[in-house]
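anyone seen this seq b4? input:
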Amino acid sequence: MPQRSEKTTFDTYRQGGTTSGIRMLIKMALVVRQFRNTMDVHLRKIGQSSARMEALGAIMNMPDPKSQSDLARRLRVENATVTRMVDILSKEGLVERTPDPGDRRVNLLSISPKGEEALREIFVVYDRVRSHILAVVPPERHDELSALFDTMLARLDEPIATDTHAEDVPRGDPLGT
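predicted toks r here
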């Protein structure tokens, strides 16, 4: 197997090192994960979750018509995940499904009055947690950070220059000895 001439991120990390890019992305993931965890702790008290908040909020906020596929794309999750969530929200009377007049295979989604009231309660919790986390970020930086996240999301939507294939992953002695 040919020797790699450049040090990989794995090599850096294995040796106890890091880079500014590694640190930034790990911290970004941790912030998002902890935000969701904190939201879920507080939302459970009212029988809700951050996943339900995201689905209900997206349905309410998206322009019409709103299909389950549109919701999956907006939330960046699999269609099956949205189907399960919409099934639950529909059974609870929070979301209404109506057949698309142009395609009976498609259900259009809307938030019910009961769903809107649930979302109103969710947003009371959300506003508290959001205010808490953003208290350390000056308001004049919000647009700058939002634009950065938009740029990163758009970049993730672009094809990656090279695909990783099984044969690209080094095998054998992990120490290279």
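The mean pLDDT is 89. Residues 48 and 149 are 27 Å apart (CA to CA). kinda curious what u guys think
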